[in-house]
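Dear colleague,

Following up on yesterday's call, I've attached the two folding results inline so they're easy to grep. Please treat them as preliminary; we haven't cross-checked anything against experimental data yet. The first protein's sequence and structure tokens come first.
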Amino acid sequence: MTKASIETPTMGAQDTPDAIYDARELGTGKTVILGVQHMFAMFGATILVPILTGLSVSATLLFAGLGTLLFHFVTKGKVPAFLGSSFAFLAGYALIAPNKEADLLPYACLGVACAGLLYLVLSLLFKVFGARRVMRFFPPIVTGPIVIAIGLILASSAINNASTNWLIAVLAVAVIIVCNIWGKGMIKIIPILIGVIVSYAIAACLGEADFTAVAEAKWIGLPVLWENTALSIFGAEFNSGLALTAIIGIMPIAFATMIEHIGDVSAISSTVNRNYMAEPGLHRTLLGDGLATIIASLFGAPANTTYGENTGVLALTKVFDPRVVRIAAIFAVALSFCPKFAAIIGCIPACVIGGVSLVLYGMISAVGVRNLVENHTDFTKTRNVLVAAVILVLSIGISYSAAGAISITLGSLIISFSGLAVGSLVGIILNALLPGADDYDPLAGADKSGDAEPQAQHLPLEC
């Protein structure tokens, strides 16, 4: 992934990106092939989220495609970004539906949809007050520990799945590592997809997979079922307490994913050498991402996020035309109408999922650590140590406690606050109240008193 500073340079007179920017000169055939390549780049990570959570694979592909097209519409068709499934919200789904319960997942989706509303709020704040005033409330000392906690909270799930067959799980890990470290070209871009395919194939040869559902599935069908949507819960059996628990428990995750979004847009700007943070502007990119997440969640699909994998493809191909990304989105939409394909994905054994998750969840926590390191967070300052300690202990401690959450009874309602929700909110408030909050310059990415190079708060949670 490309690392870039928050203040991305604009094009100079010596730059001639148009020679490698317009896909029309390549012809229809090559442009379509490039679009398919973008689809495969996002594919492995995007379909892994519904596999891990129990959400619909078909709905995921549908709203990844539609969300990308909506994002391009809101951003005036200028930003070559693809919106795929966000891994940051895995902890939220696990909080509400730890065993992939079909009747509980719509409540989790409602919480994610409400988290998407925070994108709209931040978009408005950016438009009205500017980035510097808003971002000071989300420095790396807050977002870094939140991301670390997300990965650690999910760790037990990866171990439980991997333990069903450690041989296959370790094989999946090995393939991902080999592809990511020694792979070339597209192999290096899609290590998760390759890891899933190789370990899945071997697991099938060893009799670990049951393909009965694949044989029974139709070739063509609707990707969205009403009972899977968040809208379906509003009826006679509506559980208001569970709905409030989902909203309160999941919304704080958006504090981390919004910073991730800003880092991704910064990385795309650096790759393409166009300042998308200024034009069309972060307020538009946040608005597009937020709207895509809200719509996807309401219809039973995972939250969306800008994908670093596709930024890697941009750097690889040197073709930056957003139309290529929109072609990938159209292919994703078309594939969502094939239930047989979704059934193939649904038959992936738990050991394969566990092996991939071992890498994935560890990477989430590692990205949180990297965020702290790259932004030169000063842990000789007691205030920084206190903020990080409170976030980590509350987030992880409450999650692994006997109750798994803090419950408050209001009349007939029982509202539960997840560890991540408590840790995030307390950390944000504590950081704002303690002396030294103004020492961090959000547009430089380091303490004002330091001499560090500017770094981006880039949190690529999707990979």
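Below is the second protein, in the same order (sequence, then structure):
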Amino acid sequence: MKSLDYTKGAPPLYMQIYQDLKEKIIGKEYEYGKNIPTELELQEYYGVSRITVRQAIFSLEREGLVVRTRGKGTIVCKQEVIEELLSSIKSFTEEMRERNMIPGTKFAEVSKVQANETLADIFSCETGAPLYRIRRIRTANEKPIVLFDTYISGRYQLPLENEPYYGSLYRLLEDLGIQAPVGIEERFEAVTADSEIAGALGVHIGDPIMKRTRISFDSDVNVLEYTLSYYNAAHYTYVVYAGTTDKNTQDKNTEEQKD
């Protein structure tokens, strides 16, 4: 029997079961096209009621991880996991189109903010200096994939209407005569979804999230952009290739594309 956390403040039992089953699906313990255990088997394995098990399965189904079929049980669905080549720089829009997926934007909002100490240090400006903040939820085949929280130097003249930010941000900057970045510094880390991220990406609080922090520079080594990106780890991963002798792959890896 699988031990669950019954202590005060622990996630609901159905959430703990959902998370355990989700990890087994992503880890291929339950493979695509195969059945997960029956409700009765799960009830006995976790030592909970059938209602609790059904709540967990419903959460899996709502996320597209399984499908319940009359007479066939609960079957694991094929998972759409998007891989990005880490050594190349691509726009989200280009990346999705390369994979024959339809890129989109569920939400976009631009505002003027004042730099706090952290942002002032990043942009080498005074605390309180004006910056643009652009928040966007990007989708692939209408499924939320990433939450972007981007800051742009206030020395530029950017539109304050939300509509222009529903497409590629770098393409918009280029259309405004702003040079695309020539250098990028990035950091990756694993985090868990808080209520804000969970709401944006349609995941549960505590779900695994891949966080990417990007600082991009112009040709004068001035910071152009500071972006915090939160990816749904169930549908997105980075792949690093090294030591290849394939010239075409090398050319592709070194090709710089607009983000």
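For the second protein, one point worth flagging: The chain has a mean pLDDT of 83.

Best wishes,
A.L.
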